[in-house]
Amino acid sequence: MFKLTPLLLALLYGFVLYRFSAWRTAKELDARSTELADPRLKRLTDKMASALDLERIRVNIYEIDPVNGLAAPDGRIFITRGFFRKYQQGEVSAEELASVIAHELGHVALGHSRRRMIDFSGQNAIRLLLVGILGRLLPGIGIWIANAVTSLLAAKLSRQDEYEADAYAAALLAKAGIGIAPQKSLFRKLEALTQSRAGAVPAWLMSHPKTDERIAALDALEARWGTS
Ligand SMILES: [Zn+2]
Predict the structure, then answer these.
(1) Residue 183 covered by a domain
(2) Is residue 228 part of a domain?
(3) Whole-angstrom Cα Rg for the chain
(4) Mean of the pLDDT values across residues 25-37?
(5) Coiled-coil regions in this chain (predicted)?
């Protein structure tokens, strides 16, 4: 029983942290978002909605500048004001923005957005536990190993999520008649933006795997679908 206490405390800490961050995220998003209303984009989200047998897909604008899309733990989809502005200025097409919405829908449908929060607090619990064990077994270096193992695990999980969300988006875009091409062209555009303006890396790219690898994964999907 005594040995279990640190584990229980770590789990409890993780749970409390999860509830708190979910609550804080929802509050922040409520305060700084409005429903996205754009006729051209609505035509595309309506196509995706009917492919999914939904009445409609609600998308919200989150009033911040960094170029990003996100899926809240409660299942709502957000596009940042910064991303929407790129669309209004003609730098990003309606189809390309729809591909971001499809990707975020994938995170919701596959349970990632909810799990990510749990991952985050679960990571802290695992980290604390490993630090406790390894720190005692290997004084000095144990903590370092514990941190490295936890970060590796987290990176691997989130990369997997991104590829899954991309595949979901590709299937949805294909079924809705929008196609996969905008998904790929957006990746390239964001990448170009990164190179032309140092320090202006779109947040949506930073939190995701390498562009080349994502496009290659989509090509592989297309090849598989093409032959089946
Ligand atoms: Zn993603």
Answers:
(1) yes
(2) no
(3) 20
(4) 86
(5) none
Tokens read off for 215: 């496009």
**Cα-to-centroid distance, 185 and ligand 1 (Å):** 16
Question: Is residue 199 predicted with pLDDT exceeding 70?
Answer: no
Is residue 179's pLDDT more than 90? yes
The pLDDT assigned to 228 comes to: 47
Structural domain including 12 reads 5-223
Residue whose pair of structure tokens reads 């790219």 in the numeric block: 205
Ligand 1 centroid to Cα of residue 156, in Å, is 13
Cα–ligand 1 centroid distance for 56 (angstroms): 21
Tokens of 83: 């991303």
Distance of CA 94 from the midpoint of ligand 1 (Å): 19
**Is residue 55 one of the residues assigned to a domain?**
yes
Say how many domains are in the chain: 1
The rounded Å distance from CA 103 to ligand 1 centre is 6
Burial 12-41 (b: 16+ CB within 10 A, else e): eebeebbeeebeebeeebeeebeebebeeb
Instruction: Output the pTM of the full model.
Output: 0.79
DSSP letter (8 states) at residue 65: S
* 69 C-alpha to ligand 1 centroid (Å): 8
Residue 51 lies in a domain: yes
Distance, CA of 157 to CA of 73 (rounded, Å): 17
Q: Is pLDDT above 80 for 3?
A: no
pLDDT, tens digit (0-9, with 9 covering 90-100), for 117-131: 666 666 777 777 778
